[in-house]
Design goal:
Layout (H helix, E strand, L loop, with lengths): L6 E4 L21 E4 L4 H11 L7 H7 L7
Parallel strand pairs: 1-2
Length: 71
């Protein structure tokens, strides 16, 4: 996971239950999250739990932070 100051991302597959995201619900500075839990249903459940906008596309992120490449 990234620093929870504004963005959290996980790609834990089926190893992480939706309940593991509860700590991020209503986090005061978390603005965006990218979550992949191994199934569309679990991903939707996590998104419904967090109620956050989707993460920025990589190109938008690169432009915002004046990066020339995003790997």
């Amino acid at each position: 996971m990234a620093d929870a100051s504004d963005f959290a991302e996980t790609g834990a597959g089926s190893h992480l239950p939706v309940d593991a995201i509860v700590a991020f619900v209503d986090h005061p500075t978390l603005e965006r999250a990218g979550i992949w839990l191994g199934s569309q249903r679990r991903n939707r459940d996590a998104e419904d739990l967090l109620r956050l906008p989707p993460p920025h596309p990589h190109t938008q992120f690169a432009t915002m932070h004046e990066l020339t490449r995003v790997l």
